Amino acid sequence: MNIIRKIAVLTSGGDSPGMNAAIRAVVRKGIYHKLGVLGIQSGYQGLLKNRIIPLNLKTVGGIMQRGGTMLMTSRSEEFKTESGIRKASAIIRDNKIDALIVIGGNGSMAGALQLYQQEGIPVAGIPASIDNDLYGTDMAIGVDTALNTVISTIDKIKDTASSLRRAFIIEVMGRESGYLALMGGIAGGAETVIVPEFPANLEEISIKLKQGYERGKTHCLVIVTEGAGNPYEIGKYLEDKIGFEMRVTVLGYVQRGGFPSAFDRILGSRLGSAAVEQLLQKQYHHMVVLNGDKISAIPIKEVLSHQKPLPDSLYRLADVLAR
Ligand code: F6P
Fold first, then answer.
1. Cα(73)–Cα(103) distance, rounded to whole angstroms?
2. What is the pTM for the complete model shown?
3. Domains of the chain
4. Measuring from atom 16 of ligand 1, which residue has the nearest CA?
């Protein structure tokens, strides 16, 4: 198949801290291998509008420490259609782009696979989503930074909760993935986590919380994934049962922002570099992944045909440590 001379990179879907490190690595690694590197602005939507800029060592200078994505991102409905994919492919060919690197979550990987399967465009995927819901990689870019934001907020809420002997429900992002809630609960010392992957028994939770107060606990924190239920309804139920005032805090978009942690900068750098290598090795439909300390790659098709499991053992650990 094609010789790769010119590549393009885009970020798609929700931004996540560390995307800039991945863009920088793609550009630097590409230039190291004498490839031309272009940046597509605003994800697939920008691709459909031909928003393409040249990238060089200078354009990616000073971006590593910045949150968000210097290429900007979007969620595109048009790109999901067969005609959208065809149009995108024509624009890729017109710009003489030999391969595309896509940085994003599951939806972004689905788009990349579609480009490969329908139009034969070589692609490489880089997992980036604070939800950590991409199958096949231990961590996606942005998760570590988001988790640190979650726990620093939990710490702060704990201060006010203890001062007033109040109970708090904290809703964290993650869609249907309970990773941020579970790890945030463990690292933040929450009393309970409620995640989509494991059924929650509110009656049991209320008994546990009540017992905690009776033992002299001065606060009570329940961390809930956004996809696991309405925090206000859960709060109302628990308040009635345990007889303590319950307050709700929805963390929201603060979890996506902020300067990337060292872990995310390093992960972004390693995965960005590995994605270019994939293309040079003529692997044209893979996503680069982190397993333990090793970077490798798996077919995007495999990523999309599995749900990333939330380890049972960690869910049990959270429960044991909270008692
Ligand atoms: O996938 C990342 C994420 O932040 C989810 O945790 C959240 O549900 C969603 O994106 C929010 O999407 P949007 O940015 O479109 O509001």
1. 10
2. 0.97
3. 6-142+260-304 (3.40.50.450), 143-257 (3.40.50.460)
4. 14
Instruction: Please spell the DSSP secondary structure of 166-200, one letter per residue.
Output: -EEEEEE--TT--HHHHHHHHHHT-SEEE-TTS--
In the sheet that holds 246-250, the strands lie side by side as: 192-194, 220-225, 167-172, 246-250
Q: Could you identify the atom of ligand 1 that is nearest to the CA of residue 256? A: 4
Q: Count CB-CB contacts under 10 A for residue 127.
A: 32
266, pLDDT greater than 80: yes
Whether the CB-CB separation of 26 and 270 falls below 8 Å is answered with no
Asked whether 17 lines ligand 1 (CB < 6 A), one says: no
Averaged confidence pLDDT in the chain: 96
Quick one: which of 40, 41, 52, 43 has its CA closest to 12? Answer: 43
Q: What is the pLDDT of residues 115-166, one digit of tens each?
A: 999 999 999 999 999 999 999 999 999 999 999 999 999 999 999 998 988 8
Ligand 1 atom nearest the C-alpha of 131 is: 6
